[in-house]
Design goal:
alpha+beta, globular, 11% strand, five-stranded antiparallel beta sheet, 12 strands, D-Maltodextrin-Binding Protein, domain 2, single chain, 432 residues, 18 helices
């Protein structure tokens, strides 16, 4: 992988020099920019993190006298344009970015992110993060997570779980499923009434996460290490991935998932659950605070995906500092504020998963439910990351192939052959 990465790094460096030359500026900034922190994040204003970051901005401005220039960005907007923007003089000083080999790892290997190991030591951030949560913050020179310099600071945790409409379940006398068979029986009961039980979206991440969870239900930790960390070749015809792909087809044929999902985004699926249109939604803890805030017509809860000791999840998205940041020192001060117990408690009491909060400060019962679920997964060493992390293009590859699976233009063999070829062509250099 070193040869391919070195070409990317050289290209990125050349583009960076050109961009700075054309802009007629240096990375240190000047004038008014010296007292302004340019910040990007994609958290909804009423989400746990959005609430916490708003308060952190107020504290930062009061304590430093600097101003925050905040720009709201969509997750997909940042994901798809990060390389180009960070290669220019338009880069922010700090932004929230997705973690993993294919995202933060790739940008780090291209020289687009600042290694912040010295700042981690200076501020003592490592002492506030459990070892498992540090994995996605450190990257080797090849961009593989788990070792090397620090390139970001996660300040919340996240995992994927099943949200369910308690009232809808109670009306049909359905208990929380503890096996896959019970889950399918529950979904059959809703299909019989003309209801599509699973709120899904195939234009973005939700369907791919369900696919990966189905694979995890037939996997163990070594399979995860092979898939995510390239320890051994992945068998793309083996039981986990074949079962996951076959099951998506079966569930679509059974009416558990609508074929209309091929044209829906994550927001559409989440709103379907909020509106009570579908009684189940398999997605991340990042929705939890919003559901607390917006769902008032029914009672709802969460349960762990049945018959699986592994769950999607990790440390949350993290603060990163671009190599072209004009004010990295201000960025570090802002990061440190977000790690304070009082800011972390805001995350915990508004439906998020803090990583450095005083547990005694978490008083909201609904938030306690989410944190208990997360702790249960952690106690089993169950966090298994996300399906799109292994390659830079895998997010788009998974989305496109699962769309074709749902609309019937590809079968299991076609999907797994395409995904396997793309995966193997990327990771084979790591094993040389």
């Amino acid at each position: 992988m070193r040869s391919r990465r070195s070409r990317w790094i050289a290209s990125a460096a050349a583009l960076t020099v050109s961009a700075l030359a054309l802009a007629g500026c240096s990375a240190s900034g000047s004038g008014e920019d010296d007292n302004t922190l340019k910040l990007w994040h994609f958290e909804a204003q009423n989400s746990a993190m959005g609430i916490a970051w708003d308060e952190a901005i107020k504290v930062f401005e009061e304590e430093t006298g600097a101003k925050v220039e905040y720009e709201e960005k969509a997750f997909e907007q940042i994901r798809s344009t990060a390389s180009q923007v960070l290669n220019s003089d338009q880069a922010p000083d700090i932004l929230e970015y997705n973690k993993g080999n294919a995202t933060a790892g790739l940008l780090a290997s291209q020289g687009l992110l600042t290694p912040i190991t010295d700042a981690v030591d200076e501020y003592g951030w490592a002492d506030k993060l459990a070892p498992a949560l540090q994995t996605t913050a450190r990257y080797s020179e090849d961009g593989v997570m788990g070792s090397g310099d620090w390139y970001g600071i996660p300040n919340y945790g996240e995992y994927v779980t099943m949200y369910y409409n308690k009232d809808a379940f109670a009306a049909k006398g359905i208990e929380v499923p503890t096996t896959l068979a019970e889950l399918e029986t529950a979904m059959d009961a809703f299909v019989a009434d003309g209801t599509t039980p699973l709120a899904e979206a195939a234009l973005e991440y939700p369907l791919g996460q369900l696919w990966y969870q189905l694979a995890l239900s037939k996997s163990d930790r070594q399979w995860v290490n092979d898939y995510q960390l390239y320890e051994n070749p992945v068998d793309w015809t083996g039981e986990p991935l074949t079962y996951a792909t076959d099951t998506l087809t079966d569930w679509t044929d059974a009416g558990y998932i609508s074929t209309d999902a091929t044209g829906l985004k994550a927001e559409d699926a989440g709103v379907s659950f909020i509106n009570g249109e579908s009684p189940l939604f398999f997605s991340g803890s990042w929705w939890y605070g919003r559901f607390v805030d917006e769902i008032d017509s029914f009672d709802w809860g969460i349960f762990q995906f049945p018959e699986s000791e592994l769950s999607l999840g990790s440390a949350g998205n993290m603060w990163v500092v671009p190599a072209n940041a004009k004010n990295p020192d201000l960025a570090y001060k802002f990061i440190d504020i977000t790690m304070r117990p009082e800011i972390q408690a805001l995350i915990g009491n508004n439906g998020g998963l803090p990583v450095a909060a005083d547990v005694a400060d978490i008083t909201d019962p609904k938030s306690q439910e989410l944190i208990e679920g997360f702790n249960a997964v952690n106690e089993e060493d169950g966090l298994a990351f996300y399906p799109d992390w292994p390659t830079p293009t895998f997010y788009d590859d998974i989305v496109a192939n699962l769309q074709e699976l749902l609309n019937g233009t590809k079968d299991t063999d076609g999907v797994l052959t395409t995904l396997g070829d793309g995966y193997d062509s990327y990771v084979e250099d790591f094993r040389k």
